[in-house]
Amino acid sequence: MSILSQLEQTTEALVVPGIYDAFTARLAEEAGFACLYLSGASLAYTRLGSPDLGLVTMTEVADTIAAITDRVDAALIVDGDTGYGNALNVKRTMRVFERAGAAAIQLEDQTFPKRCGHLKGKSLIAATEMVGKIRAAADARRHSDTLIIARTDAIAVEGFASALDRAEQYLEAGADILFIEAPESREQQELIGERFASRVPLLANMVEGGRTPLADSASLGRLGFKLALYPGGMARALLRQANAYLSSLKRHGTTEPFREQMANFDELNDAIGLPQMLADAKRYEA
Q1: Where would one find coiled-coil regions in this protein (predicted)?
Q2: Coil, strand, or helix at residue 240?
């Protein structure tokens, strides 16, 4: 089901979990999520073992998109960072990501190299340059239902009023969804909703420990937000659980004390689709 169709079916904000590979995408889809977010930050953490500082390349993201969409049917929102260059780079990014299976591509107005939206020290390109990138993305897409999510990081750099002004320009340029990053209070969230919710779907970014107050999907829906993104929760959950597992293994020299907290052999095989693959193989051999 398309992203816009999913948004039409709920009054709450659509909860979109962040994933970073085909395995976590399968887990999220099996848990009932029909829209997923390929987080650039989580991809940096897990593929490169690095912070979210613009180190992941366009081709690395494209490879990951293809691996994910080969294994799940859920609509995939892809973090395209800055588009990896100027408007011409954005055109290529859109074509490559769309061909790999992205249902929506997020572009932001930070300078390159960018950094996590909830870190200090960000800088922005001119609003006019970002407008050009949005127009380039719109021109490059092959299908009108491939959505463009325009993100502005202006609140932390130029102030709240500038963020609203930039969002207006990005909407006029052709953005399908607006993402005003890191509002610092419920009041700012309310003002964003009052200004834009009747005209365009709004995305709220829920970063645990970040600058924006955490809220549930019902509360965000009442504020006018249509999507609630939880980009790094999977990586954070993995970090805590993996550390506990490794600590136990180091201490005991065996996995036995930790086994009750681990999936068993059959659970893992079910999660990765082994029974279906074996059934397919048998059918093709017949």
Answers
A1: none
A2: helix
